Amino acid sequence: MEYHNPVMLLETVDGLNIDPAGTYVDVTFGGGGHSREILRRLGPEGKLFAFDQDEDAQANAIDDSRFTLIPENFRFLKRFLRFHNVRQVDGILADLGVSSHQFDVAERGFSTRFDGALDMRMSKKNKLDAYRVVNEYDEAHLRRIFNDYGELRNAPVIARVIVEARTQVPIRNTEQLKSVVSRLFPAHKGNKFMAMIYQAIRIEVNQEMEALMEFLEQSLEILKPGGRLSVLSYHSLEDRLVKRFMKNGMFEGEPERDMFGNFSVPFRLVGKMAVPSDEEINTNSRARSAKLRVAEKI
Known about the structure:
7 strands; alpha/beta; about 300 residues
């Protein structure tokens, strides 16, 4: 089974406008698909650093003198690049979300298709897992994550039902969780709503929104003027943060204006937001929600 089938592979790497002698970062290494394409375009002087917090991804490390794999969360981008004496880079690529491998391994607990432990950690070093979220968070906290991260209108009901069920017996696996909440949705919409519940729990477990914001802020510091940021996102929460940051250099509010009343922004948007072709979606269903945005540091 393929570890991960990268979405919009060529378009995402094209967005970096690669200089063969440049230094690049793939912050979501996974199966190494994007990294191999970047290395194919680099010359002998080029360098590629990759990040991945998932221990399973280490087995895919590429044997190439130009390549370094850093087994850490991309929220520590600046720290670990400095450890390798890298202060600025020519381009950064991010393919956000969950890899095909993580979805396809039942015991990781990411997929609604399998029964597995309530885990959902992208790194086994993470102390917080889905079991703790489901069984230990109070009702108000559960309500917030289902509302904010799952964008579920009936978040209060979902939270209350989970809290009531776990007083009888701990919810230990994904099938138990499904049986607890499945009666809240019409049968024909069950898969869609379960995916939204899983998404909310997974984002909380891995602190994905906080990590993404920290990464984006650091990317601005680390990119050289003229350096490119190429980001694939898969749901509206991620895409909203990426869009706002590329447009304004911040997540909330408006940037400062110069003396002529023009906004002072750190990026120039490169092209329009792109989506996969129908052909790619037909061959890789996980591509259907992908959005690609590219920006160049001014």
